[in-house]
Amino acid sequence: MAEEKAAVGTNFIHAKIEKDLEEGKYGDKVLTRFPPEPNGYLHIGHAKSICLNFTTAIRYNGACNLRYDDTNPVKEDMEYVDSIENDVRWLGFEWKERLWASDYFDEMYECAVTLIRKGLAFVCDLSGEQIRQYRGTLTEPGKESPYRGRSVEENLRLFEEMREGKCADGEKVLRAKIDMASPNINMRDPVIYRIAHAEHHNTGDKWCIYPMYDFAHPIEDAIEGITHSICTLEFEDHRPLYDWVLQAVGKWPTPPQQIEFARLNLTNTVMSKRLLKKMVDEGDVDGWDDPRMPTIAGIRRRGYTPEAVRDFCERIGVAKANSTVDIGLLEACVRDDLKTKVRNRNVVENPIKVIITNYPEGQTEDMEVENNREVPEMGNRTIPFSRELWVDGDDFMEVPAKKYFRLFPGNEVRFKGAYFITCNEVVKNEDGSVKELLCTYDPETKSGTEGANRKVKGTIHWVDTATAVKIRIRNYDYLMVEDENGELVMNPDSLTETIGYAEPLLAEAEGGDRFQFFRKGYYMADSELTTDEEKVFNRIVGLKSSFKVKK
Ligand code: ATP
Ligand code: MG
């Protein structure tokens, strides 16, 4: 378990647990679980569930299990299992036990037999379509199945035959016998076991009947001794069935209880493993860990930190009503976390050459520049300054827009950590594009000296052309954007690559190193693409949007 306690401040789930602790419902025990189906990579929505389950447990000196919800007979994919464990640990949590729901198949089967013996379950021969027709609607009660009156003996025999493989898929099901007139449709004799002649990764061909989620989940929770089974709001109407199953089986004197919270929805974000898998399979993205993906693997590769994700989950809190959170909040959490953690580096894109005509040819000065203004302990680095520099394409306008204080002919700006520089002349190429800017520096304004206190409106960054390191920068925009109907569609411009010129220190960057590119944003050297020869950076997140000029 992570060391720290969950932040103070309480929510309705904590309130419920505190009440149970006060009444001693489960003694002083709090045991939660995170129950992923191993059929894809986890996304940021799962992170909310993980944070909630683990921090709640930590808060009450309890524990949280990791349980694979593998009651569907599909091929296990070890890739998914490994990724899930990696992601939970990356978020900073450690489970008490790692369990597989399929290990409980024998016990679940026994529970079903118990229900039959108690006259609380029956084998039904209606087809799926007929069961739907019999179920009724929100305003009309359902109709009882003609097989509802089967005797206990007949039901036991038929269920046994189902188990032995004597029936085809869909030929029969086992249903709970509850109430076809219940206002809650989930209680109208729900199916609890179905036939599926399919191989299961864990149990092989031992079973050809498999429990339905609503029957399996409460039993899984009860077997493990879960106290509070936290799930998303869609299951609220299933709670009466959750309670019914545990009560009807009757094996557990103090059964677990289900508590629902609103799932996380984020703007510009697809939050469904199924749809994310489709994008991966169809090659729309570069794998599950594509830095544009909302998967935990994706945001990790992009450069988000676990601290930022946990802070985000804390800030959004838990609610009882569905809503959509602005992805800007997640980005703000990332900025807040990185602000005091990473060093600044000068990087320019779309470079424009600056010649300081009154600076001695062949001379280089090592300028001392702070690594992070907010964290003096990070000290300074030196950046070479010389007669020929690169500045960022965004920091020059031949004809300045209103309130543009950066370089333009006749204007003086501060070159961060160096001197005040005045742009005197624009030299053009034959095609009319800017070749270079002829500038002069004021020797009295060296950074750190008295002269540098003179007021000047613009401050820009720069790199020395002779020592600059060429880097590749991957700029990410949202993977999904809204079309005119408000539907999320793929953004064709979600990835653009640029070449940057960086101060020499970036030549030493290794995959996973994060920096603030001064005045630009936060970037991380991509762990897979970065080599000794070429540094490739992912833009994690931009700085808070400042004044942007349209050219
Ligand atoms: P998906 O629809 O993306 O496949 P899922 O709910 O089917 O999600 P599971 O593997 O079954 O995926 O989910 C594991 C746990 O994560 C469940 O307890 C589920 O409630 C929770 N969870 C999934 N998506 C979200 C979300 N967007 N917000 C909060 N919790 C979520
Ligand atoms: Mg699911």
Key structural traits:
551 residues, alpha/beta, 7-stranded mixed β-sheet, 25% helix, elongated, disordered N terminus, disordered C terminus, binds adenosine-5'-triphosphate, binds magnesium ion
Describe the structure.
The two termini are 52 Å apart. The protein has a seven-stranded mixed β-sheet with strand order 13-28-29-30-24-27-14. Strands 22-19-20-21-15-18-23 form a seven-stranded mixed β-sheet, with no helix packed on it. Helix content is 25%, strand content 26%. The protein is elongated, with a radius of gyration of 31 Å. The chain has 551 residues and is an alpha/beta fold. The structure holds adenosine-5'-triphosphate and magnesium ion. The site of adenosine-5'-triphosphate has 16 residues, from helix 2, strand 9 and helix 9.
Compact summary:
This protein is α/β, with parallel strands linked by helices and 551 residues long.
Set out the fold topology.
Layout: H1 12-23, E1 25-28, E2 31-34, H2 44-59, E3 63-68, H3 78-90, E4 98-100, H4 105-117, E5 121-124, H5 128-134, H6 152-164, E6 173-176, E7 191-195, E8 209-211, H7 213-224, E9 228-232, H8 239-249, E10 257-261, E11 264-266, H9 273-281, H10 296-302, H11 306-316, E12 323-325, H12 327-339, E13 343-345, E14 347-349, E15 352-356, E16 364-370, E17 380-386, E18 388-391, E19 412-415, E20 420-428, E21 434-442, E22 459-460, E23 462-464, E24 469-476, E25 480-482, E26 488-490, E27 495-502, E28 514-517, E29 521-525, E30 536-542
Parallel strand pairs: 2-3, 3-4, 9-10, 11-12, 13-28, 15-21, 19-22, 24-30
Antiparallel strand pairs: 5-6, 6-7, 7-8, 14-27, 15-18, 16-17, 18-23, 19-20, 20-21, 24-27, 25-26, 28-29, 29-30
This protein binds adenosine-5'-triphosphate (ATP) and magnesium ion.
